[in-house]
Structure formats: structure tokens, C-alpha cells
């Protein structure tokens, strides 16, 4: 395993992770809900009255982040080379998979691991392994 | 006021995603490419987030209600079933194909990446398949 030091960003990533952990902590303590993005969006896809407002407020905050960040610093680059048919397939898999699997990188990978959930540990190991296999097949075969 | 707090939590979450670099699919590919030139950044994002959140979640478990008065809704499911395994497997394949997951792709879309909008449209469709149990309707 060779670490590519030209792209590795340990401090930024650790600091960003701490902010994500802070937001997830606030969500559970203040609102009593898991800050899992797929779950929060999923609850809007089939909306239940009275349950919509906190989801929209949180997502509006999330969407405001790049707009505010851009006022004080340059946004990190977005390098997207995936052709659109692949984006469609990937989007379908991510959307359906996260809902059937009851979580994504934030719900399982952050909140689930932080509360010591065996289900989340299994889910995280599975989606990381699956992702690594896909990247291996695309890059090295 | 309550909604402003929730907005702020979303903002902090989003700023964390941007700062950590996770909005760029190349950072995701770099992490998943364990046999190539590996970029461990994502492990530090997740590790940092988990360490910060461990104590607050332990605190949350002992409370019946959240600070804003809503009941504490910690997940109760504990079975590792086929749905969890297959769903996570599909999620991982999609994540590995595009390098996007639900949070970062929203930020990428607002930052002006049209590819992210395509992904989001497909992702919402995928979620609708679950929410409205569309597979049952098409299966007949």
C-alpha cells in the first residue's frame, strides 16, 4: 500500500471530519435525529407533514455551504470525468442502495460507527469493499 | 429559531465536506484505489467525525428527548439482514462508479457541476423506487 503524498490532505480532512462530527452530534442532541444525508433526503421523497421542515432546514444549510465558503476562500476543485450514462447508473445504485441499506457514508459511516452499531460497521465495510473492487476493475484491469 | 439551528447544523456539515475535500470524486477514487497510489484522506474524515461524535451519541442514548423537545430517535434495528447487505453493496458499487455519495453531490451541484445534477436526478429516482415500493408495481 503506497500513500500518494501529493494528494493526501491529512489536516484538512481531519478538520473537515471534525466539523462533520460536530454537525452530526448537534443533530442527535438538538433534534434527536441521525444526520444521515440519504435518510434526510429520502424522508422528503415521500414527505410526511410536520416532518419536512427540519429536513429542509438542514439541507438548505448544507446547500448554502459552498455559496458561503466561496465568499472567503476558493472552493476545492471538482474533477468529474464520469460519462453521463455511468452517472445515471451510479446515481440509481446510490439512491436505492442507501435507502435499502438504511444509510450511506454519513448515516452508517459517521453516525452509525460513532454509536457503535454493528449494522453500520457491516454496511460500511461492505460499501467500502464494493467501491474498492469497482475502482480496481476500472483502473487496473 | 429551531429551523435556524438546523440550518446551521447543515451549514457546518457542508463546510466540513468542502474542507475535507470529499466533494471531489477524485478524492473518493483515490481512497478506494487501495492497490494504486492511495489517498487515505477519507479515512481521516470519517475517523475525525467518529471521534468527535462518540461522546455526544453516548449522551444521546441516555436521554429520552432532544434539546428541542423532539423524542430521541436512535435507530433500533439490530439485525444484519439481506436488505442491509444488498443495499450497502449496491451503494458501494454506485459510489465506486461515480465517486459521489448523497452529501457531497449536493454540494457539487450547487458549486456548478452539471454532472452532479444528473447524478442527483438518478439518485432521487433510486430513492423513489424504495419509498414507493416501485419494484412491486413493475414486478407484476
Topology of helices and strands:
The complex is a heterodimer of chains A (141) and B (140).
Chain A: E1 2-3, H1 10-31, H2 37-45, H3 52-72, H4 84-100, H5 107-114, H6 118-140
Helix pairs in contact in A: 2-3, 5-6
Chain B: H1 2-20, H2 25-32, E1 37-38, H3 41-61, H4 82-98, H5 102-110, H6 114-131, H7 134-139
Structure description:
The complex is a heterodimer of chains A (141) and B (140). Chain A has 141 residues and is mostly helical. Chain A has one domain. Chain A has six helices and one strand; from the N terminus they run βαααααα. In chain A, helix 2 crosses helix 3 and helix 5 (107-114) runs antiparallel to helix 6. The mean pLDDT of chain A is 96. Chain B has 140 residues and is mainly α. In chain B, 70% of the residues lie in helices and 1% in strands. Chain B has seven helices and one strand. Chain B has helices at residues 2-20, 25-32, 41-61, 82-98, 102-110, 114-131, 134-139; one strand at residues 37-38. Chain B starts with a helix and ends with a helix. Chains A and B meet through strand 1, helix 1, helix 2, helix 3 and helix 4 of A and helix 1, helix 2, strand 1, helix 3 and helix 4 of B. Strand 1 (2-3) of chain A pairs parallel with strand 1 (37-38) of chain B.
Mind summarizing the main beta sheet of chain B?
none
Structural class of chain A: mainly alpha
Radius of gyration of chain A over all CA atoms, rounded: 17 Å
What is the strand tally of chain B? 1
User: In angstroms, what separates the terminal alpha carbons of chain A?
Assistant: 18 Å
Instruction: Name the chain pair whose interface involves the most residues.
Output: A-B, 111 and 116 residues
Mean pLDDT metric of chain A: 96
| Proportion of beta-strand residues of chain B | under 5%
Main pleated-sheet profile of chain A = none
Radius of gyration of chain B using CA atoms only = 18 Å
Shape assignment of chain A: globular
What percent of residues of chain A are in strands?
under 5%
Whole-number tally of structural domains of chain B: 2
Low-confidence stretches of chain A: none
Given as residue ranges, the uncertain stretches of chain B (5+ residues, pLDDT < 50) are: none
Give the overall shape of chain B, derived from the CA principal axes.
globular
Question: How much helical structure, as a percent, in the residues of chain A?
Answer: over 70%
Number of domains of chain A: 1
Order of helices and strands of chain A: EHHHHHH
Amino acid at each position: 500500500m503506497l500513500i500518494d503524498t501529493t494528494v493526501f490532505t491529512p489536516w484538512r480532512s481531519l478538520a473537515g471530519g471534525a466539523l462533520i462530527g460536530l454537525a452530526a452530534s448537534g443533530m442527535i442532541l438538538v433534534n434527536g435525529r441521525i444526520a444521515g444525508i440519504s435518510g434526510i433526503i429520502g424522508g422528503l421523497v415521500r414527505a410526511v407533514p410536520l416532518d419536512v421542515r427540519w429536513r429542509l432546514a438542514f439541507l438548505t444549510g448544507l446547500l448554502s455551504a459552498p455559496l458561503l465558503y466561496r465568499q472567503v476562500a476558493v472552493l476545492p476543485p471538482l474533477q468529474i470525468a464520469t460519462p453521463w450514462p455511468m452517472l445515471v447508473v451510479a446515481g440509481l445504485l446510490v439512491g436505492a442502495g442507501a435507502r435499502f441499506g438504511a444509510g450511506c457514508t454519513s448515516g452508517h459511516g459517521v453516525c452509525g460507527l460513532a454509536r457503535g452499531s454493528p449494522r453500520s460497521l457491516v454496511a460500511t465495510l461492505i460499501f467500502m469493499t464494493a467501491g474498492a473492487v469497482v475502482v480496481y476493475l476500472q483502473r487496473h484491469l | 429559531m429551531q429551523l435556524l439551528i438546523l440550518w446551521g447544523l447543515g451549514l457546518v456539515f457542508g463546510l466540513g465536506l468542502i474542507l475535507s475535500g470529499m466533494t471531489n470524486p477524485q478524492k473518493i477514487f483515490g481512497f478506494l484505489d487501495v492497490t494504486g497510489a492511495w489517498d487515505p484522506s477519507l479515512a481521516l474524515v470519517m475517523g475525525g467525525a467518529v471521534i468527535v461524535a462518540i461522546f455526544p451519541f453516548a449522551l444521546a442514548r441516555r436521554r429520552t428527548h432532544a434539546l428541542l423537545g423532539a423524542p430521541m430517535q436512535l435507530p433500533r434495528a439490530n439485525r444484519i439482514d439481506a436488505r442491509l447487505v444488498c443495499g450497502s453493496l449496491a451503494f458501494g458499487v454506485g459510489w465506486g462508479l461515480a465517486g459521489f455519495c448523497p452529501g457531497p453531490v449536493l454540494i457539487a451541484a450547487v458549486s456548478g457541476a452539471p454532472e452532479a445534477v444528473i447524478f442527483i436526478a438518478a439518485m432521487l429516482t433510486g430513492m423513489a423506487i424504495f419509498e414507493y415500493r416501485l419494484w412491486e408495481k413493475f414486478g407484476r
